[in-house]
Amino acid sequence: MNTTEPTPASTTDYDVIVIGGSYAGLSAALQLARARRHILVVDAGHRRNRFATSSHGFLTRDGQPAADIAAEGRANVAAYPNVAWHDGTATAARHDGGSDGHAFVVELDDARTVRGARLVLATGVRDDLPHIDGLAERWGKSVFHCPYCHGYELNEGRIGVLASGPLSVHQAQMLPHWGHVTFFTNGVCPLDDAQRADLQARGVQVDDTPVLRLVNVATVVLEDGRQEIMTGLFTYGRVHMSSPIAQLLGCAFDEGPLGPFIRTDESRQTTVPAVFAAGDAMRAASSVALSVADGAMAGVGAHRSLLFGVTPFAAPMMAVSASASSSHSGAR
Ligand SMILES: Cc1cc2nc3c(=O)[nH]c(=O)nc-3n(C[C@H](O)[C@H](O)[C@H](O)COP(=O)(O)OP(=O)(O)OC[C@H]3O[C@@H](n4cnc5c(N)ncnc54)[C@H](O)[C@@H]3O)c2cc1C
Q: Is 259 in the pocket of ligand 1 (CB under 6 A)?
């Protein structure tokens, strides 16, 4: 754990505390740093894609190591003297008054507490993977969940979809654009006639034999003794919040197809005033690009909320700042 303190802010008071310093949090922090706010980024260092060797689909960084993109982002943010960084975990957060009635106390894992006038939650999610022997160690290497991220590199080879539930049909329907698909239903995704016909029309081969384990790069060992050699595999896990802080603060959640995510409005404000959220923690569809975009919006949203005051959930952004600036100019 390591905290670098900014100048000239006090050691414990920040304009904004960003919890989670990966793509979404870094992007929020960059906007806030450039707005000359005093901010603290708290990051435990467990990016969701840390299992993958390379990251794809993020413009200008396509195919680069995911860790390098995060490290470069951190260097961008750390270059601003008004940014403090804590390598560690925010263990709790609570509302704590403040000059405008909106401030938060955040507890850190080194037993310190810090105060922020605004919070950005960019804490991401963790994947609860299907229990198939050999799957976890291949996650991000030859077993993936997102074809846009890792489908192209399979070079239109043999792709296996390992069912984890009814939603897996959707994954099997998508993947023929990336290769020759076999859908292993594995006893957890019973198909009706219409689904079988649809998959057949898409060129998907369905295999209902139970899966025993994965071996080699992406070979599927089946209960009847067959070994299906695949170029790569796809599956869905359930997703869970990486941190309980949004729940502790009372943020509302929506239920996505793979798990809950924090409800936000256009400015990425959550249902708790002055608390913003960005990245995988607040959206069902996930990617580095989307997280960076959300983070930029959350950073700007948090800054506007410092400038113009806290707005109700889902207030239109432009209307709010237009009315604030017209009342400001009228007062002069
Ligand atoms: C195997 C795999 C491969 C992927 N490949 C790609 C790809 O090729 N291209 C692509 O665009 N996307 C890819 N993704 C998706 C991508 O990883 C996510 O969309 C992205 O990481 C989300 O960014 P984020 O900042 O929201 O969350 P994360 O990157 O998950 O970062 C969250 C951060 O918050 C920290 N944190 C959590 N709780 C706390 C706390 N209480 N205190 C302090 N810090 C905390 C975590 O330690 C972590 O550092 C992949 C995902 C997986 C699982």
A: no
